[in-house]
Design brief:
By secondary structure, the protein is α/β, with parallel strands linked by helices. The chain contains twelve helices and ten strands. It starts with 46 loop residues before the first strand and ends in an 11-residue tail after the last strand.
C-alpha cells in the first residue's frame, strides 16, 4: 500500500475545490507531478437518497453512492486514473490488465488519453458491449475461456519479461489509491460524517479496502470523529469466496467451486486481496452477505421501477443484501445506511 506522512496533517481547506474530479484530493494521491495526471473527469459522483424505497420498507435513511456517473460508466475509472497516471510518471508505454469487464474498458480509455498501448485480457463469455468498448478505445483484446483468475494467469504469461505495466487488482498499489477517493467524497458529501452501515459489492475488493483506508486516513487527519461504519461485503451465491474463507479459513480454496454470475464484477473466485478484505470486515464488526442471481434481477428491476435508476447487478445485490440483513436482525431499519452502486446497468442488458 501507499503510505503518507499524516503526522502534521492536511487541512480540509487544502482540498482543491475548483477540481471536479478525484484530483481535488491530489495531496493524498501518489502522483508527484501534476503534468502526469491523466483525468477524464472521474469522481465527484452523486450521493443519492433513496426516499421511495426508504418509505416503502420503513428505513430511516438509505443513501446510494452512484458510481455509474464515472467515465466509462463505473468506479473502475477512479483506480485506473491514478494507476495510468503513475505509469506515465514511471515512463511506461504499455499496460495490461485481466478484467471481468469494466476495468478493461477503463484502462483502455485512460491509456488512450495517455498515449499508451493497452492490452486487455477478458473472459470470452463477457457481454459483447465490454469487448467492443475496449476495441473502440484501441486496446488489444485477448479473450480467455474461463473466469478472471484464468485471465490473470494469461496476463502473467504475457508479461513474463515485464514488458507491460501490470495493473491487476492489488498487484500494484495505485488503483487502490484512486478507489479510496470514494471514501473521501462520501464523508465530504455528508458534512464530514459517515453512515452507520456500508454495503459494498465485493469482487476483487479494492473498493472495500480503499474505503476503509480512506476512513482511517481521515480519522488520523482529524477530519472525522466517532465510530467508523460497519462494512458488509456483498457477493453472488455463484461466486462467494469471502464467505468460503470465513467458514473454512485454512483450506477454503481447495473446496471452492465458483461459476459465472449475472454480476460480472463479482465473478472473482480467488481475490488477491482476501486477507485485507477479511481484516476490514473484522475491524469494522461487519460481515458478508450472499445473494443469488434471481434475487439480483428482482432487486435491479425494483430499483428501476421505484427510484428511476438503472444500476449494475452488483449494485442491485447490495439492496437485496440490505433486506436480507434486516430480516435477520443484523442491521436495524433505524440506522443510516449507504449502498454502493459500482456502475451503470445499461452495459448489462445483454445479461438480462
Amino acid at each position: 500500500m501507499v503510505n503518507y506522512d499524516l503526522e502534521f496533517g492536511m487541512q480540509q481547506e487544502e482540498i482543491l475545490t475548483d477540481q471536479q474530479s478525484i484530483w481535488r484530493y491530489a495531496s493524498l494521491l501518489p502522483v508527484f507531478n501534476t503534468s502526469n495526471q491523466i483525468s477524464l473527469g472521474e469522481g465527484n459522483t452523486p450521493l443519492l437518497t433513496l426516499n421511495n424505497l426508504s418509505t416503502k420498507y420503513g428505513f430511516k435513511n438509505i443513501f446510494l453512492k452512484d458510481e455509474s456517473f464515472n467515465p466509462t460508466g463505473s468506479f473502475k475509472a477512479r483506480g485506473l486514473s491514478v494507476a495510468i497516471s503513475k505509469a506515465k510518471e514511471f515512463k511506461r508505454k504499455k499496460c495490461i490488465v485481466p478484467t471481468a469487464g469494466n476495468a478493461g474498458g477503463a484502462m483502455a480509455a485512460y491509456c488512450a488519453k495517455a498515449g499508451m498501448e493497452a492490452t486487455v485480457v477478458m473472459p470470452i463469455k463477457t457481454p459483447s458491449i465490454f469487448k467492443e468498448e475496449c476495441k473502440l478505445y484501441g486496446a488489444d483484446l485477448i479473450l480467455v475461456d474461463g473466469l478472471i483468475n484464468d485471465c490473470a494467469k494469461k496476463v502473467a504469461a504475457l508479461n513474463i519479461n515485464n514488458e507491460f505495466f501490470d495493473v491487476s487488482t492489488l498487484k500494484e498499489p495505485y488503483r487502490l489509491e484512486g478507489k479510496k477517493t470514494m471514501g473521501y467524497e462520501i464523508a465530504e458529501q455528508l458534512g464530514w460524517a459517515l453512515p452507520d452501515i456500508i454495503l459494498y459489492p465485493a469482487g476483487g475488493g479494492t473498493g472495500l479496502i480503499g474505503l476503509w483506508k480512506a476512513f482511517k486516513e481521515m480519522k488520523k487527519l482529524g477530519w472525522i470523529s466517532g465510530k467508523l461504519p460497519r462494512m458488509f461485503a456483498v457477493q453472488s451465491s455463484n461466486c462467494a469466496p469471502i464467505a468460503a474463507a470465513m467458514n473454512h479459513s485454512e483450506n477454503w480454496q481447495t473446496k471452492f467451486i465458483p461459476s459465472a454470475t449475472i454480476a460480472n464484477g463479482l465473478a472473482v473466485p480467488f481475490p488477491f486481496g482476501m486477507d485485507l478484505m477479511l481484516q476490514v470486515i473484522k475491524e469494522s464488526n461487519g460481515g458478508v452477505c450472499i445473494i443469488d442471481d434471481d434475487a439480483i434481477i428482482i432487486g435491479l428491476k425494483e430499483i428501476a421501477k421505484t427510484e428511476g435508476l438503472i444500476i449494475s447487478p452488483e449494485g442491485a445485490a447490495t439492496w437485496m443484501a440490505l433486506n436480507q440483513l434486516c430480516t435477520n436482525k443484523v442491521i436495524k431499519h433505524s440506522e443510516s445506511i449507504l449502498l454502493l452502486n459500482t456502475g451503470t446497468g445499461y452495459k448489462y442488458f445483454e445479461n438480462l
